[in-house]
Amino acid sequence: MAVLRAVCPRWTKSTSTPVSRLLCRRKFTSSNRSMGANNAKSISEAFLNKFSQGQTFVRSQLLDANQLRLFSLTLDRPHLWSSSNSSSGHDLEDKEPLSGTPIPPYYHLVYFTPAQLPGRLGLDGTDASFNPDAPFTRRMWAGGSCHWVGANPNNASTQALLRVGEMATETTKVLSCEPKVIGKTGEDMLVVRVEKEFRNSKDELCVLDRRNWVFRTALDPTKPATTVPKPAELSVSELEQAATGKVVREYNRDEAMLFRFSALTFNAHRIHYDKPWARDVEGHRNVVVHGPMNLMAMLDHWRDAKAPSQDGDGIFFPEKIEYRATSPVYAGEAYRVMMDEDAVRQKVADVNVVSNDGTTCMKGTISDWS
Prior knowledge:
The protein is an alpha+beta fold and 370 residues long. It is 19% helix and 25% strand. The protein has one domain: Thiol Ester Dehydrase, Chain A (Roll), CATH 3.10.129. The chain contains eight helices and ten strands. Strand 3 (167-181) and strand 4 form a beta hairpin. The chain is globular, with a radius of gyration of 21 Å. Mean pLDDT is 88; it is low at 1-37. This is Mesaconyl-C(4)-CoA hydratase.
């Protein structure tokens, strides 16, 4: 795992205590355990009280070329940018991207990864830095938005982009924590919204990344779950009909890809690589494709569709994306990323992840700059 040793990012705050210790330590206190197990409102208020002074948590890190190279290859993309004229037009199997190469939309996920000791992870392997108190510790990436603030092509001479080989800074703050009820089951859950700003070595704001995490009640590993059955896939003619008038990219992720993605993002969430846990504890029929992997597939699909109409070196960014995960995608099951053909030439494009049984698994809206 040499790629994970390149940089060890460090959290900073008004004290020198790393955030992983600052926040994880609290979940073991007696006052924490005395809270009502199902009192979502009080737990939400207690969570927000941790951040009541508007604290921000800051990390700096080198944007390492090899880490980005391995990440793109894991996604089966041997080029960071589609144009051979770009500064990373060479095949990544041959060599690393050049210093100064802009990092593609949402590939910043491979940096500023979690940095906890094993004993500080949740039971399901998740990073517990921003977890509410028990029992709401089962985290899922539910959606969010991302705005490439510094990438406005109308200000090409002053674009602020994250680039290979530079030092960058991530600033994280909690925006909200809301108790909600799952309509189908009546189960309580908490929705936590965080905001991450990414700045380049000149302290220019490049990316504004807002993430929505859902926290549900923790599961008991000793109680076997009911596995979600696999629906029947649509027929070939039905799939062809659904693709009429659309630009389509087909995927079928395997376990090896999910494992490499987890390793490079230092994501120990067990639903992505531990099939017995995913199936027997959480009720999934196989390991689950990462939500951010589907998000990146939508952005890559948009970039690939737009590329032929772009001038210059082929390096371009959307203005923003808003997205929401609606259903799991499983390893070994075919699915497609789809957008209307006409949307390629429009300012706003709806891009969806749809399984071959017809289930919409993620919805996204990508806005171009013009």
